[in-house]
Amino acid sequence: MVMFNFTYQYTNSLLLDNHGRKINYLRLAVTDRCNLRCFYCMPEHGLNWLSRADLMSYEEMLRGCSLLVKMGIEKIRITGGEPFVRKDIMQLLTALSDLDGLKELSITTNGVLTAPHVMDLKRIGIRSVNLSLDTLDAARFFAITRRDEFPDVMQTLEQLLKHDIEVKINTVVMAGQNTRDIIPLVQLTKEMPVSVRFIEEMPFNGDGHSHSGIVWDYVRIFEEIRQHFPTIEKIVDPLYSTAYNYHVPGHTGDVGIIAAYSRTFCGTCNRIRITPQGTLKNCLYDDGVLNIRDLIRSGLDDAELKDVLLAAFNSREKDGWAAEHKRLANPHFHESMATIGG
Ligand code: SAM
Question: Ligand 1, closest atom to CA 41?
């Protein structure tokens, strides 16, 4: 049983970076472990998993999150690795859902172990879930993820919709792998109230091979969709959206395209990340700017921790290209999305 034995006074704050951008969104990766082996994310044998001592404890996560919410974070997304492979994850989610001042708690999952928890997610107030799904074909699912779990993922989708939880399906578009899934996935939005978002592949595959460009960028993805759905129209992008959002007239759901490799959205970036071992990242493409776990373990009080965090937010790179340029001196492209809070 996990005990969380501290309390915080909530005061509302506005957190701005050195470029005047509001920071109000934290993506917290609770584990590096995953029950799938998507080839674009990690090698078949997995990663060098973090030891339990290296992982942030739930108490440390909650302390960091509580402080960040007081500083201005309004939305937290739990990610990983796969959040549901970490023991007692519902206890952390429940404690986070009780944080004063947190406006939105959400989760990103591959859906393999999620279905039995959907009722509890609803109960603690989770209104939106990102479900990663790269294909609607069971054989291709196996080829991409190296695991035979397609039926469980579809069951999660069904449960989420049944419980009126907003679903965003995230699909990484990979040349030669799943481009023939683009149209069936858009077709899914005809009857289902889901937002299907196509994501450019990024160079975080965990196997040491950097890739120097992509064939299926956001322009080509859109062209593919437009050829099949010529009436597709642009809709208003929500504030801070990383996706270009579209709607096919007559469809229930929407379509999004995320230029994660082309990085067209950095100018409005409102997000920070904390990895499972506590590294704070100001940008997906940076090398990490400090380690919040180590700062907590060294005994810093909240005022001291806040000062260090503010200094980090005050030295954010302008965009993902600048962040990547800086780290090229020390390239870590063997990193996996599972270790960086994807
Ligand atoms: N396990 C959870 C899930 O599957 O949603 C959360 C972690 S997973 C790393 C988060 C997202 O990152 C998934 O949608 C996954 O497809 C995406 N991802 C992983 N590697 C990627 C890459 N190289 N390029 C683009 N997206 C990637």
Answer: 20
Q: What is the largest CA-CA distance in the chain?
A: 59
Token pair for 94? 């429940």
- 250 close to 190: Cβ distance less than 8 angstroms: yes
Q: Which of 207, 337, 340 to mutate to test the pocket of ligand 1 (most atoms within 8 A of CB)?
A: 337
Structure tokens at 309: 């965090």
pLDDT in tens, 205-216: 776 555 567 899
What does the alpha-carbon distance between residue 32 and residue 80 come to, in Å, rounded to a whole number? Answer: 6
How many CA atoms lie within 13 Å of 313's alpha carbon, on the beta-carbon side? 26
pTM: 0.93
199 CA from centroid of ligand 1 (Å): 9
What does the DSSP 8-state code read for residue 114?
A: T
pLDDT of the residue at 327: 78
d(CA 145, CA 278): 27
Residues in the chain, total: 342
> Is 327 strand, coil or helix?
helix
Other beta carbons within 10 angstroms of residue 201's beta carbon come to 20
Q: What angle do CA 9, 13, 19 make, to 5 degrees?
A: 150
CA angle 90, 23, 81 (to 5 degrees): 35
Tokens found for residue 11: 């005061």
- Please report the atom of ligand 1 found closest to the CA of residue 202: 24
Query: How many CA atoms does the CB half-sphere of 75 hold within 13 Å?
Result: 18
Residue 128 has pLDDT above 50, yes or no: yes
Residue 8 has pLDDT above 50, yes or no: no
How do beta strands 271-274 and 279-281 pair?
A: antiparallel
